[in-house]
Design a protein that fits this description.
InterPro entries: Solute-binding_3/MltF_N. 37% of the residues lie in helices and 23% in strands. The protein has 281 residues and is of the alpha/beta class. The protein folds into two domains: 11-113 and 220-273, D-Maltodextrin-Binding Protein, domain 2 (3-Layer(aba) Sandwich); 116-212, 3-Layer(aba) Sandwich (D-Maltodextrin-Binding Protein, domain 2).
Length: 281
């Protein structure tokens, strides 16, 4: 069952002030509502005072303005979200890396960059050159989130940590960071938009250090639209809208609202050509 905040349902009427032609004049028909799955992903998607907020939420709102379609947000633990998506009970999943299994169920629409970092409480030491170095030389325990896709090079090191009794999978990032705060874990793996929000929220920014590791290079993140539930012509409309948001700077501006202009420029360093080139011709 999905978990909603107190003011839930949140079916968004997003056709007002649309900058593009509404659905009635387009080559697609919007359903009554399109269900969008969200998870605890820091500044990408979080719950605050009974509302859903974050870059993913703002992107969906903009998607509604550009297509004239209506969306309903539904909240799940990350692992459960992809099970619901595979079972055709969620129509769009935001903030996702591409992988072969997910490509079978959905059409990927890239819009941002992401990179997992090794986040450690300073008491666990630091200066590790790689995740493998942390596994070999460190003693700290990591808590990582279930349902998150980790690159094979990262997963190999996580498997080694698990064999050594130094890894625990938890349901969400909130649990991981609260356990770090309480001293029951020493660190986690998380992109900047996730660890920044949780460390600020819990007031532990000064206690944590984060390191880029070569096993986790920068990757492209995006949304998946269900092949079973979203009509092909609507998939195409959503894809065109996301691509336009990347090309016209809307995505970068949305990230800037949450992490600040300097960190947004860091996330999109080198420009968006790699993202745009990821769209199928």
């Amino acid at each position: 069952m999905s978990v909603h905040p107190p003011l839930s349902a949140l079916v968004l009427a997003l056709a007002m002030a649309a900058p593009v032609a509404p659905a009635a004049a387009a080559d697609y028909v919007c359903p009554a509502v399109t269900r969008v799955g969200l998870s605890d992903l820091g500044y990408a998607s979080y719950r605050e005072h009974g509302r859903y907020r974050g870059t993913a939420v703002d992107l969906v709102e903009e998607l509604g303005r550009r297509t004239g379609c209506r969306f309903q947000f539904e909240w799940y633990p990350r692992g459960r979200l992809f099970a619901e998506f595979s079972a055709n009970r969620v129509d769009i999943v935001m903030s996702s890396l591409a992988d072969t299994a997910r490509n079978q169920a959905g059409r990927w629409m890239p819009y941002s960059y992401t990179r997992f970092e090794l986040v450690l409480n300073r008491r666990a030491g630091g200066g590790y050159a790689s995740l493998a170095d942390f596994v070999d030389q460190g003693t700290g325990r990591l808590n990582v989130t279930r349902g998150v896709y980790y690159a094979p090079a990262v997963q190999r090191q996580l498997d080694r940590l698990q064999q050594a009794g130094r890894l625990e999978y938890v349901n969400d990032y909130d649990t991981a960071f609260r356990k770090i705060q309480a001293g029951r874990a020493d660190g986690t793996l998380a992109p900047l938009v996730i660890h920044l929000w949780h460390s600020r929220r819990l007031g532990v920014s000064d206690d944590l250090a984060h390191y880029e590791v070569p096993e986790a290079p920068r990757s492209i993140a995006g949304a998946y639209a269900s092949r079973a539930n979203v009509a092909p012509e609507l998939q195409q409309a959503f894809t065109a809208a996301f691509r336009a948001m990347v090309a016209d700077g809307t995505v970068q501006a949305i990230y800037g609202r949450y992490v600040g202009a300097d960190l947004a420029r860091q996330i999109f360093a080198g420009g968006t050509r790699e993202i745009l080139d990821s769209y199928a011709p």
